[in-house]
Model the fold of this input.
Amino acid sequence: MTPDTSFNVIVAGGGIAGVEALLALRDLAGDRAQVTLLSPDDEFVYRPFSVAAPFGLGHAERIPLRKIGEDTGARWVQDALAGVDDAAGTVRTDGGEELPFDALLVAVGATPVVGVEHATTWWPGGDPEVLGGLLRDVSEGYVKSLAFVVPSGFVWPLPTYELALMTAREAKGMGQDGVAITLLTPEQEPLALFGPQAGAALREELERAGVRLVTGTAASVRRAGSGLEVTPAAGGEPLLVERAIAVPRVIGPALAGLPADDEGFVRTGADGRVEGLERTWAAGDGTASPIKLGGLATWQAGRAAAAIAALAGAPAEAPGDDAPVLEGVLMTGVEPRPLDGADPQGRRAHVPLWHPAGKVAGRWLPRYVGDERAPAAQEAERAVRVERTVSDVRAVDAAGLYDLSRPIQANSAEIRRLGSHMHGHH
Done:
């Protein structure tokens, strides 16, 4: 009997959430669904280790989307999602094509925009040479003072801490012991999303590396002579530095036909289904959540894929825990450190989440890229985990994070211009 593949599924987005969803659908739905991958990119790029590339400690992994499509049996359409008509079951692409669907998963991500004017903006998808040039200036003694700034708004702050730590270690390794490094963040505690143990571990790492930490304030940067003046919004003495580095804030995709908040992020229910729609789900950084984390994106994508597979007639899977645990690994410039306050020298076992020692958990994705050491069920008790559930974060931290996002609104013409400019150089 010929399988019925008339159930059309579109996965829009070729990032972590989109690829995890493709792999999940292949596993859960099999030949019950015909899947189309819609993405303007031609490669899947795993970016977390990009933060370590300028220091010679890692690199971004790239896999052609055409190959992923072939491996999963999906058709690849190289175009961007422009709008959704859930009632009609169609999507519109930037190229003007109209594609039908029975189920749609939107995983298009968020757009980085400048978060701190006059600071050098860098993120894991950015140009490693930006930091490479900075490190050369540090090694040659041209730069003696730096500030790393976490912007207000929707932002994933972890790379900022990693950059500060690795720059401090690198400077000392080059014999430049007099480099003053300050990190400023609106968070009351460093990496507050991970809870107090992670904050204590990070404070210890920063102190050990000689990085000064200023918490509880958004900082602005302005030019001052040949240098820069960094001013904490909550008061305090301005800081004069030669260089300032910041990660971007992000704004949502603001797609026609998808309910969104005022920052353009897609509103979803607990099951990932887009609010008010019948056959459209969303996962990843483009959803309305203060948490922008690859591990959460894969969890969202897998949950949505399970619901879509059930619609296609596959045996229903149990939805799993409604409160996934956040976990992470901090790149310190010495060795990755689990974010739970554990001793990095090995008093507690650490199971890598990505090859060779990674930072994104997922049910399907780690195995696909060939990491045989990805945490399996029997290894779960050995894995270092941050005991911080998403519901904990929403209850304690989310309100403050949402408040921080309000100074700059996504409907600002300047933000749209900056977003388009940075996306064009992505």
